[in-house]
């Protein structure tokens, strides 16, 4: 350890500093001086950007118990020890530009965490325990190798900003539509070919960026009055799967029937699910308390998170949809989004709603 670094840490201990800056120090290992004796009990913010660290010490929380912000941007960190979960007061954790291949489940024990930045790593998945971060407001997992997001992410009820650009995502969990504080969603440069039918239904969600998803042809009509980015969408020359409407694009696997304005009969299965939804709707938040024999768990989850809601009358939909396309080039937004061939798609619950829906009326 250099004399200057030693003096910096000793002074921080003696004067009970709350902030410590150790950026650009060519550190290969975590400074031992930070962990000696009682550590830095008063330290709240530790900046260690652009070093060469490969991991963190197991006793970090013991020696720095009051740490609120930890900035480890641009190191060579390969893994985070389980003890990271002991940083009870931590609110901001920046691990961007490292070499993380996995994130330990103990990350979910950071109950005070508000900002988690994991961009530009090598992550292929996120632990389901991320959903335990009830105070999380910002999550940045861009520039990784993610093929999906955890189904538990909708439990992060405080989430406002989700960035997952430049991954390998093929779909967006429809449960994200129930994050009523989510204000900005960015999933540019992935492999998306459809979006949740209800995306944009929340008034709080105002900014959606899905640029450069070349197989994405349809935008849910709830996004019509939002700030959207869709450059480079719908330009793929890839042949559509058999049975898929080439103009409409791909659809969620739950869709069993795509109705038209000429169809007047809604399938019995769809009617039954809509009826069940109405019965349980007033106590959806307590569905997990119902007797297990009442309905299968999978069915209860479907009732809690329908496939979508009719843009005309807000009727919940489960297996049957009646879509109507509004090509972006024919809307007032055409001049803003020039390099795209996508359409807004209004998903309706019946042929009657399909005939009367009009986004621009």
TrEMBL record:
Keywords noted in UniProt: Leucine-rich repeat, Repeat
InterPro entries for the chain: Leu-rich_rpt, Leu-rich_rpt_typical-subtyp, LRR_dom_sf, LRR_domain-containing, LRR_R13L4/SHOC2-like
Pfam families xref list: LRR_14, LRR_8
The Disease resistance R13L4/SHOC-2-like LRR domain, residue ranges: 105-190
A single cellular component GO annotation: cytoplasm
Full protein name: Disease resistance R13L4/SHOC-2-like LRR domain-containing protein
Originating organism: Mugilogobius chulae (yellowstripe goby)
């Amino acid at each position: 350890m250099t004399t200057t670094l030693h003096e910096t840490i000793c002074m921080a201990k003696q004067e009970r500093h709350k902030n410590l800056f150790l950026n650009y120090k060519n550190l290969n290992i975590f400074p031992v001086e930070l962990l000696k004796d009682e550590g830095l009990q008063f330290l709240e913010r530790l900046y260690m950007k652009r070093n060469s660290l490969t991991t963190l010490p197991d006793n970090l929380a013991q020696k720095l118990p009051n740490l609120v912000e930890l900035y480890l941007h641009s190191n060579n960190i390969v893994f985070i020890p389980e003890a990271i979960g002991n940083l009870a007061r931590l609110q901001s954790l920046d691990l961007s530009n490292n070499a993380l291949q996995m994130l330990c489940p103990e990350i979910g024990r950071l109950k005070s965490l508000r900002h988690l930045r994991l961009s530009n790593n090598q992550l292929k998945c996120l632990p389901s325990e991320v959903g335990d971060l009830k105070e999380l407001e910002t999550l940045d997992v861009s520039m990784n190798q993610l093929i999906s997001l955890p189904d538990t992410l909708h439990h992060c009820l405080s989430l406002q900003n989700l960035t997952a650009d430049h991954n390998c995502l093929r779909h967006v969990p429809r449960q994200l539509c129930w994050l009523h504080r989510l204000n900005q969603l960015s999933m540019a440069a992935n492999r998306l070919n459809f979006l949740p039918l209800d995306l944009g239904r929340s008034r709080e969600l105002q900014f959606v960026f899905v640029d450069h998803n070349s197989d994405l042809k349809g935008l849910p009509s709830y996004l019509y009055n939002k700030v959207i980015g869709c450059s480079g969408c719908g330009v793929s020359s890839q042949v559509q799967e058999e049975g898929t409407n080439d103009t409409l694009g791909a659809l969620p696997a739950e869709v069993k029937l795509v109705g038209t304005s000429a169809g007047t009969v809604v399938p019995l299965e769809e009617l039954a699910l809509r009826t069940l939804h109405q019965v349980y709707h007033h106590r959806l938040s307590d569905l997990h308390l119902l007797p297990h024999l009442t309905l299968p768990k999978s069915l209860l989850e479907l009732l809690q998170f329908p496939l979508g809601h009719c843009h005309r009358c807000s009727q919940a939909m489960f297996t049957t949809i009646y879509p109507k396309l509004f090509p972006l080039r024919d809307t007032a937004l055409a001049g803003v989004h020039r390099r795209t061939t996508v359409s807004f798609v209004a998903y309706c619950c019946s042929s009657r709603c399909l005939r009367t829906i009009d986004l621009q009326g």
